[in-house]
């Protein structure tokens, strides 16, 4: 009961003194606001980036393996000199892999390759440096890309290599000036194609496929422009497993068949890479962790400056209220009551600064979400962390002035 009474009286006095010195209070919390907003903003940004990446990976599924020349893991220990002489996955290897794989493990198999610096034109406009993706097999069964209008390729178009194309939303918008391009013709690298579909608008999605600015063709037709194993091409064999198959079993099955196709001896290393989308998200998570550390350092120095500001203001406040402290002690106020007044004042200033900083970040995040297609995710743990840091700064900055005030001699204090 005594503690509750002490707490409520201390808070009431603290609020009264803060209201009496509005400008000083504002300047005191400014440094804390800047520091907390820096930390919370960067933590929220990295959390949102990671969340968006994880969501995009989850949409594609976690039971997908890509057979490539290069592994997707970078950093220390990346033996690029070993990988550069590896052969690129070929269409024949894809066909063999599809034929020989255990159908109880492997659900779908597809082949695709990308190449850039292509020209596409219609009667309205011409686009340069467009990325083209040649696809075959079960590509659209594995990759659930949303169609805005039209359709995906049928088996006849894929197997015969028909001159058909599915284009990204931006390509369709720029080539045909906002008109529906389905059924219309375009020229790709001098070859006439019929647009059969348009992908839905994706925006700035992170960690997933980027298909707003591409054109997708059947592999057999795309080979007229670039060979899958040519220097300008990046081919992949993509495999997904059944729901009841774990990723390790799928990896083992793909490795077994690929080693057999390439006639590798038991002691020879794999001359191919098995990549997973989780490798990208895990790698980026490490990067985000480093960004968080950098944000913590920047925020620490901002809070350090803010903390010194709070401490300085508290010492000034103690000096100004010396006679009040003497009167309170003369009337029987105990040390803990005097100490708690100034300590709570310091903590309250920091909490107010933290709340303002958090509200600023929330408002800025909502604005960014409305102006862009990037989705912001908020985390209660980040906000709690920000408040906790502010409380810690308040205790550190306020403890020394509070002790000084609590130890004042009432007789000497009343004379000042």
What's the helix and strand layout?
Blueprint: H1 2-20, H2 22-60, E1 64-68, H3 80-83, H4 91-100, E2 106-121, E3 126-137, H5 139-142, E4 147-150, H6 155-160, E5 164-167, H7 169-176, E6 185-188, E7 191-199, E8 214-218, H8 219-222, E9 233-241, H9 247-261, E10 273-275, H10 277-320, H11 322-330, H12 335-371, H13 380-406, H14 410-415
Parallel strand pairs: 3-8, 5-7
Antiparallel strand pairs: 1-9, 1-10, 2-3, 2-6, 2-9, 4-7, 5-8, 6-7
Helix pairs in contact: 1-12, 2-10, 2-12, 2-13, 4-9, 10-12, 10-13, 12-13
Explained architecture:
By secondary structure, this protein is an alpha+beta fold. The chain has 2 domains: 188 residues, no CATH class; 213 residues, no CATH class. The chain contains 14 helices and 10 strands. The chain has a 6-stranded mixed beta barrel with strand order 2-3-8-5-7-6. Helix 4 packs across helix 9 and helix 12 runs antiparallel to helix 13. The mean pLDDT is 85.
């Amino acid at each position: 009961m005594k503690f509750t009474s002490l707490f409520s009286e201390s808070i009431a006095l603290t609020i009264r003194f803060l209201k009496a010195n509005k400008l000083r209070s504002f300047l005191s919390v400014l440094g804390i606001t800047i520091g907390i907003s820096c930390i919370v903003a960067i933590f929220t940004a990295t959390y949102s980036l990671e969340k968006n990446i994880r969501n995009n990976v989850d949409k594609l599924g976690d039971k997908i393996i890509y057979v490539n020349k290069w592994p997707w893991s970078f950093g220390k220990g990346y033996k690029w000199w070993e990988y550069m002489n590896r052969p690129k996955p070929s269409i024949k290897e894809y066909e063999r892999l599809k034929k020989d794989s255990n159908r109880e493990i492997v659900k779908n198999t597809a082949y695709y390759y990308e190449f850039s610096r292509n020209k596409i034109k219609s009667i309205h406009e011409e686009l340069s440096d467009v990325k083209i993706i040649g696809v075959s097999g079960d590509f659209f069964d594995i990759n659930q890309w949303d169609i805005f209008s039209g359709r995906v390729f049928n088996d006849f178009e894929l197997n015969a290599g028909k001159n058909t194309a599915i284009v990204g939303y931006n390509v369709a918008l720029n080539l045909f000036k906002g008109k529906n391009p389905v059924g219309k013709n375009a020229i790709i690298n001098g070859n006439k194609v019929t647009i059969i579909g348009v992908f839905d608008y994706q925006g700035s999605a992170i960690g997933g496929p980027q298909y707003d600015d591409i054109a997708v063709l059947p592999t057999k037709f795309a080979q007229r422009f670039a060979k899958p194993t040519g220097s300008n091409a990046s081919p992949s064999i993509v495999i997904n497993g059944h729901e009841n198959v774990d990723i390790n079993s799928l990896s083992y099955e793909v490795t077994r068949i690929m080693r057999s196709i390439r006639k590798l001896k038991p002691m020879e290393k794999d001359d191919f890479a098995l990549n997973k989308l989780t490798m990208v998200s895990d790698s980026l998570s490490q990067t985000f962790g480093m960004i968080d550390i950098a944000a913590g350092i920047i925020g620490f120095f901002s809070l350090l400056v803010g903390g010194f500001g709070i401490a300085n203001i508290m010492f000034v406040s103690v000096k100004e209220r010396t006679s009040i402290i003497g009167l309170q002690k003369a009337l029987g106020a105990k040390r803990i009551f005097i100490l708690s007044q100034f300590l709570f004042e310091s903590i309250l200033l920091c909490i107010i600064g933290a709340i303002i900083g958090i509200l600023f970040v929330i408002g800025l995040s909502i604005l960014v979400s409305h102006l862009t297609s990037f989705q912001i995710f908020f985390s209660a743990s980040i906000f709690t962390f920000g408040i906790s840091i502010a409380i810690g700064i308040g205790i550190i900055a306020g403890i020394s002035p509070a002790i000084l005030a609590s130890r004042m001699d009432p007789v000497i204090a009343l004379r000042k």
